[in-house]
Write a structure and sequence with these properties.
By secondary structure, the protein is mainly α. The protein contains 8 helices and no strands.
């Protein structure tokens, strides 16, 4: 994720200048689409939400109901907000699917967030969101790393750039967060 001074200017002006807001989407769309594609790869088989729809829903959260874009301090600030928007969309969708009137009753499974593939059929976004919320109260930086890496699809290098910390710090926080979340989601988390 390289810095682009022109993009940073657009991000900073997006709220005050409608032309900047209009010019922003084409500049960030491909990256948002890539992030959403990574998220959709984690969805259960037979899901109905597509990456393009996830991008569009996230974009609507980012620009607001009135179509007025917010302004962001930097590219990292924008993509952090986008990752959070995608997280909320996926969690809300998981809650709707899980509800009894939609035939839910998903089973709770431990999350093994190691850097290997896992079965998306066993991923419980609602339980993950609850555990991540608790982790954010205990260790906000570790929770932010999970949000950017898991929901935002960012690499260690890009996460470090967004957060303004070293890659080593991100890698350490990622490993700590994975272990903590695995215990929390398996129901064996102790204080």
């Amino acid at each position: 994720m390289s810095d682009d001074p022109d993009l940073t200017v657009l991000l900073q002006r997006a709220g005050a200048d409608p032309a900047a807001g209009e010019a922003l989407l084409p500049r960030v769309y491909d990256e948002l689409r890539r992030l959403a594609g990574g998220q959709m790869g984690r969805e259960a088989k037979g899901h109905t939400l597509q990456a393009t729809a996830l991008v569009h829903e996230a974009w609507m959260k980012l620009v607001g109901a009135d179509g007025e874009s917010l302004s962001w301090d930097s590219r990292g600030h924008f993509f952090s907000a986008a990752a959070l928007a995608m997280r909320r969309i996926l969690v809300d969708r998981a809650r709707r699917v899980r509800s009894e009137k939609h035939g839910g009753a998903m089973r709770r499974q431990p999350l093994e967030m190691a850097d290997r593939a896992f079965d998306p059929d066993d991923l419980d976004f609602v339980a993950l969101d609850a555990a991540l919320t608790e982790l954010s109260e205990r260790d906000p930086r570790a929770a932010k790393v999970v949000e950017l890496r898991f929901f935002g699809g960012l690499s260690v290098e890009d996460t470090a750039s967004v957060m303004g910390v070293s890659e080593r710090t991100v890698a350490r926080e990622w490993n700590v967060a994975k272990a903590w979340l695995a215990r929390a989601l398996s129901g064996s988390q102790d204080d």
